[in-house]
Amino acid sequence: MIHYFFLALLSFGVAMKKYVLKRVITAIFTLLAITLILFILMQLMPGSPFNDEKLNESQRAALYAKYGLDKPIVIQFFHYVINMFKGDLGVSYKISKNTPITQLIASRLPISIGVGFAAVSIGALIGLLLGLLAAFKRDTVWDTLATVISVIGVSVPSYVFALALSYQFGFKLDWFPMLFSAKDVLGSSVLPSVSLSMFTMASIARFTRAEMIEVLGSDYMLLAESKGLSGNKIVFAHALRNALIPIITVLAPLVVDLMTGSLVVEKIFSIPGVGSLLVNAIQSNDYNVVIALSFIYSAMYIGIMLVVDILYGVIDPRIRVAKEGD
Amino acid sequence: MKKKFLSIMLASALALSMIGCGSSAVSGVSEQKDTTAEETDSAQADNATTTDAGESSGEDLNVMLETPVESLDPQQATDGTSFEVIADYTDGLMQMDADGQAVNALAESIDVSEDGLTYTFHIREDANWSNGEPVTAADFVFAWQRAVDPEVASEYSYMLSDIGQIVNAQDIIDGAKDKSELGVTAVDDKTLEVKLNVPVSYFLSLMYFPTFYPVNQAFFESCADTYATSPETTLSNGAFVLDDYQPAATTIHLTKNPDYYDADRVKLPGLNYQVIQDSQQALMSYQSGDLDTTLVNGEQVDQVKDDPAFKAIGAGYLWYISPNIQEVKELQNVNIRYAITMALNREAITTDVLKDGSAPTYTAVPMDFAAGPDGSDFSADQEKFKEVCRYDADAAVEYWNKGLEELGVTELTITMIHDADDAPIKVAQVVKEQLETTLSGLTVELQQMPKKERVQRMQEGEFELGLTRWGPDYADPMTYLGMWVTNNSNNYGFWSNKDYDAIIAECTTGETAMDASARWSALYDAEQIVMDEAVIFPLYTQCNAELISTSVSGIEFHPVALNRVYKDASKN
């Protein structure tokens, strides 16, 4: 008996390693492909990063030469990738002239991640509670209310929440600062985090409700109840645990949605994060900044997806087997 | 029992989250739609009560910025925000007075040679950098050489070559000569000599432009590549000292410089900049007292226009429509062009649509930025070209019918490209409506696009009509008139006129350049040609709608170079 178990574990390890390796290699090539596509897209954007109106042809040529933009796109790409592996993402051409992008990002990424993490935490926690409430009080006024909130949260974009919350709780009630402040990071992160968390909260609530209802109606819950287990234990040890598995998987794409939402929300609250940086960079054709940030966003996306896939494989062996069969 | 506890807990969590999000969001949105005058009143009341609280944190002036600083390196910066902040802590040889005239700053006295080709600046003895080093002539030589150095590739190098006409500047930019051959020398520590190719009547007014600001070479080299990226890597010789900044920062802080030679004049203890890119947030921050001045967006003007703090500040930009004269057959017909320019009701555009104080303009050079030898504004007389540029629907129809007849058609469809920004979208729609109403048989199709794309299409001649704008680079009509010479990259219509080119050349490098008043009247002749041929259809001179708290006084606003100067500003 023990012998069999050991064998299974061993085979799991080898298969898992192979699976992870395959996924990591795919991820690296995907990222390279994304970078190349970004380079080509940048080239297609009208105008240059420089002050198009005020510069004549020869000045523009001089600037292109200075930054190596006069070279063929393929060469630029290889230069970029080689430098990237050395940890050099180039310099900004416009929004913060000649500043190394690694320096720009180093001070800003932690702020964005902080706000994003707060948003996911708030969203997941409240969403879970809402979903549970709706599931346990199914077909009551609580359920309807939870559904209404979920629908609003899913359908209203985060920047509308941002402006509305800022108006109500920043301007009218003066509970929280309207703008991000380095002196009061916690207080001034409340409104942006809450605005960003709405979509996550609503999605999690809907998902939790559906999963809980399914689990609560399943045979093993009936068995657990007939064993005479108490309400709490049934909810937490059996129902919630089983319902959580699919919820973890939706959390991943939600984190990614959060990153895109942060582009606008950061701009509204004047948060010195990477989102507002990306928006400004796109508007001024600041090639290197756009490529570097898009790369980071893509890497985060792919990374999160990878982690979730692997976790999911660990939690539920059926998935792993199916994927291996591909 | 436990189940009951759980449900109560959940219910209260739900209730809490509803207060926190759902309900407020709904009410917030509906109130937002009709932000009424009532709300502004209450906001003002709020403002009155919160200013006291603001004072406890000092008397710093809180200023809103629309965009972050792009560069604090004076030879690399090109945008108004960067220029403003650089000038807060750096003085040039000259600075602007309240009227935009050049007055001595670091220069104590100036000798100009009789032929107007040599300028000798004597630098103040008491001018020092914030590290204690004196400001010397060598600091200017170093900075100006950087400005034309092809390795630095400054975007504003043309300020020294085309515009400033400093000896050898162009050759150095082109790589034909070494930067040490630039026509600027440090005669001694405090004497700077500048040699020009031709007399430049507005040369002194260029000296307040940050591209010409000094840089201390030893300090610059000690910073290596990090110059002007933090308070530690900047030196001040001006009214304030930078003490909080990082690249692309959303907040910037400066403190009064006690060692400034003119420190007695500076009343503010400090300046606090806050970048806000959302107009609603900016207005609310102003109304809650967090800002002393803010820019007001076109849609908010109605809401605040009766506020005593509301002001229209001249921005210098001329908005105009450029017809593509070379490529579009119909627009080659001058009668069609007259018809269009006379069918435009500029008053209606500024008073009914923009409402921000922008002024209808009937000249090729906008108002209030260039004063002539006699001190009067170049474009003060807006009726100068009324024969060819005015609002006159009847005359427009007459020209229109004549033009159609000459073309042998009865209907015309013209597309107009414009920026996908707030003001241009609104202006383009009114222009379309005005033209189509007055000129029967005309259809104007609008195409909106990002500004970069619009500029590119106009530079490549891929347009019919283009709604565009131009901001003055220096206080002389040439910053506009220089655009319409043959083959200039901003001559979007590819218009070409030998007489015009001759006048402009004569005023730039010829005999006329030596005689200020003859040059002035020659520039009028050039403008007359542009208007007679309807090369552009001027629309309006832009103003920015701003709220400036009534407790603040003395901020100087300029349409050229330095948009705001705080040296004389105070806050009660």
TrEMBL record, chain A:
Q: What range(s) does the ABC transmembrane type-1 domain occupy?
A: 109-308
Q: What protein is this chain from?
A: Oligopeptide transport system permease protein
Enumerate the InterPro entries for this protein: BPD_transp_1_N, MetI-like, MetI-like_sf
Instruction: Give the family from UniProt.
Output: Belongs to the binding-protein-dependent transport system permease family.
Residues spanning the membrane? 24-45, 111-133, 145-165, 185-205, 243-269, 289-315
Q: Signal peptide location in the record? A: none
**Keyword set includes Transmembrane:** yes
Q: Does the keyword Transmembrane helix apply?
A: yes
Q: Which Gene3D superfamilies match?
A: MetI-like
A Gene Ontology biological process noted in the UniProt record is: transmembrane transport
Q: Which SUPFAM superfamilies match?
A: MetI-like
- Would you name any one GO CC term? plasma membrane
Give its localization: Cell membrane
Q: How does the UniProt record describe the way this protein sits in the membrane?
A: Multi-pass membrane protein
**Organism source for this protein?**
Butyrivibrio hungatei DSM 14810
Automatic annotation (TrEMBL), chain B:
Renumbered residue ranges of the record's region Disordered: 30-58
Q: Which GO terms describe its molecular function?
A: peptide transmembrane transporter activity
* Cleavable signal peptide: 1-25
Swiss-Prot/TrEMBL keywords: Signal, Transport
Gene Ontology CC terms? ATP-binding cassette (ABC) transporter complex; outer membrane-bounded periplasmic space
Q: Which domain of life is it from?
A: Bacteria
Q: Which residues form a coiled coil?
A: none
| Entry-linked InterPro entries | Peptide/Ni-bd, SBP_5, SBP_5_CS, SBP_5_dom
Q: Where in the cell is it found?
A: Cell membrane
One protein family per Pfam: SBP_bac_5
Which family does this protein fall into? Belongs to the bacterial solute-binding protein 5 family.
Please give the name of this protein.
Oligopeptide transport system substrate-binding protein
Species of origin: Butyrivibrio hungatei DSM 14810
Q: Which lineage? A: Bacteria, Bacillati, Bacillota, Clostridia, Lachnospirales
